[in-house]
Design a protein that fits this description.
Order of helices and strands: EHHEEEEEHHH
CATH superfamily: Mannitol-specific EII, Chain A
Oligomer: single chain
Distance between the termini: 9 Å
Low-confidence stretches: none
Strand content: 15-25%
Number of strands: 6
Largest sheet: 6 strands, mixed
Mean pLDDT: 95
Length: about 150
C-alpha cells in the first residue's frame, strides 16, 4: 500500500499551529472531517495510549502517530508540518516537523503494518525529509510523495 492510496489533499496541512503533542494529535484529527467527533475521540484516546508506551517520534524531525481501532473502517492517513517544530518526546530528543498520522481498522492489520513500514522507509531518506520541509503547498507535498511512493 502506498501513502497516496489513502492520503487525500484535504488531509494535508502544511502549517500546523499546535505546540504540544496532544494539540498536534487534535489538529491532525480535525482534518478527518469525514469521521464523526465521537469516533475521533476514541481514536485520540487510542493514539495517546500508544504514545504513553513509546513515542512515535522516530527521529530526524519525523513522527508517525498511529493506531489500529474498531472506531473506523478502512485506512486513513493525515499529513502535517510544523514550521516551528514540536517537542514530541522524539527518540532522538529533537523537535518534530513532519507528522504522518495513520489510523486503520483492526481487521486491516497487514495493510496497516505495511503502510507504517513504507512511511518510515520513505521518511528515512534525508533528501525526502528536506524536500517535504521546503514544500509550500499541498500540491508540492503530493508531487514529492508521488515521486518517492
Amino acid at each position: 500500500m502506498k501513502i497516496l492510496d489513502v492520503l487525500d489533499k484535504e488531509h494535508i496541512k502544511i502549517d500546523l499551529k499546535s505546540g504540544s503533542k496532544s494539540e498536534i494529535i487534535d489538529e491532525l484529527l480535525s482534518l478527518m472531517k469525514e469521521i464523526p467527533d465521537e469516533k475521533k475521540g476514541i481514536i485520540r484516546k487510542e493514539i495517546m495510549e500508544r504514545e504513553a508506551i513509546k513515542s512515535t517520534g522516530i527521529g530526524h524531525g519525523i513522527a508517525i502517530p498511529h493506531t489500529e481501532t474498531e472506531a473506523i473502517d478502512g485506512v486513513h492517513v493525515v499529513f502535517g508540518m510544523s514550521k516551528k517544530g514540536v517537542d514530541f518526546l522524539s527518540l532522538d530528543g529533537n523537535p518534530v516537523y513532519v507528522f504522518i498520522l495513520v489510523v486503520a481498522n483492526k481487521s486491516l492489520n497487514l495493510k496497516y503494518l505495511s503502510l507504517l513500514a513504507h512511511v518510515a522507509r520513505i521518511l528515512s531518506k534525508k533528501d525526502v525529509r528536506e524536500r517535504l520541509l521546503m514544500a509550500k503547498s499541498k500540491d508540492e507535498i503530493i508531487n514529492i510523495l508521488k515521486e518517492v511512493d
